[in-house]
Amino acid sequence: MGKSILITGGARSGKSTLAERTTLALGQPAVYIATAEAHDPEMAERIARHQARRGAEWRTVSAPLDLTGALDASDGGGPRLVDCLTLWLSNLLFAERDWEAEAEAFATALARQSAPVVIVTNEVGAGIVPENALARRFRDAAGLVNQRVAQAADEVLFCVSGYPMKVKP
Amino acid sequence: MGKSILITGGARSGKSTLAERTTLALGQPAVYIATAEAHDPEMAERIARHQARRGAEWRTVSAPLDLTGALDASDGGGPRLVDCLTLWLSNLLFAERDWEAEAEAFATALARQSAPVVIVTNEVGAGIVPENALARRFRDAAGLVNQRVAQAADEVLFCVSGYPMKVKP
Amino acid sequence: MGKSILITGGARSGKSTLAERTTLALGQPAVYIATAEAHDPEMAERIARHQARRGAEWRTVSAPLDLTGALDASDGGGPRLVDCLTLWLSNLLFAERDWEAEAEAFATALARQSAPVVIVTNEVGAGIVPENALARRFRDAAGLVNQRVAQAADEVLFCVSGYPMKVKP
Question: Which positions does UniProt annotate for GTP binding (chains A, B, C) (predicted)?
Fold first, then answer.
């Protein structure tokens, strides 16, 4: 079975760079499964900056909603990097999909992969309780998605200032 | 002396589930000391969901303000789970009690327990500085309460995506 | 070469107290390099409270902007404590300085120190995405500064409830 590694951490904690390095160390070429969609200029700029950092050893696949399908479709070759679960959740909520069923399907799919997969997610629950009810629901959902995927993953790393701390096993 | 374990982490990081498992592993039946009060429907729903998850091996005690009294009163039998310090602090502030004195009394009480106690708290200080002055004061107080109780506790765990990281000892 | 230790953590996680203890254990007397400026009464009160905690074993230097200069100027004797990078970044942004160049210069300067230096910084990226665009840019910059300095530092510690977790090496 292909090993699965979940990398979590705060914004700008170095998760994506660490995840890219970790993925390429598992094999090359690698597949970058992007969940980001450019809804506004700030996001478009962030996506472009991330892509510019990645070189020719990457093939990019876009999967804003059907992440499990993209994971299964890319299996059998080199390692995959999913970046990231938090934007995926945000897309699912915006599209009014059943995010709990989708997260369950994704976590279940990890066990049937033959090639490795590295997954990036975000810590969003360690600040003050948001005043906005929608933000509270989002951070609850994000935490539950992280827990479910962590349970299914072989390894979980918590990234602080660019360095990984071992959470699981 | 009864062992004391503080479990901290962000919202939906799996703290309560981990704390329940940890408590039951220390002995059964166990006492659940709840600090939550249902001030609104969102909170009422969260309390009901948490209670539904706990089974018959738990006896529930409500202690929105007099947590130290509830801790002392429940001593001598099975393990206790205090869930959580952050809501307790919130109740103390709302009732205009002296939260520093209350936290000191609670921390001091840990040393005189004969049965074990597991304590849940929240990380609320790792986001951007809140614009709201009351929120800034709350996160300062929450951090200080966590430090004081951590100092008194035998073990401190930091929960990430449902898994504990060792902070102390 | 003087050892460098970066201590990060959320608000009121006990970083400053830990950093002061760590610095004094490296030698005495020590130099406290303060980046804080009292822009308002809340900040003035916080600065005064921090100073009151430090004793006669400390000499205080103020460096709201020229942190690298203050670091170099204080080299050659006892250990230095820089408290903190996050306020320094905030001062640089307010003064419209090139914060990336300044962070690069500071990180580079660490390698040429002969006396040890302990550096405090803040985790600000583990809450919900701020609605305010300026706050989002600030948390991005703060995370990048932390990564750059962590890369240059010999040790990185993550402080939770007053206790250090090892991040690097």
Answer: 9-16, 34-36, 83
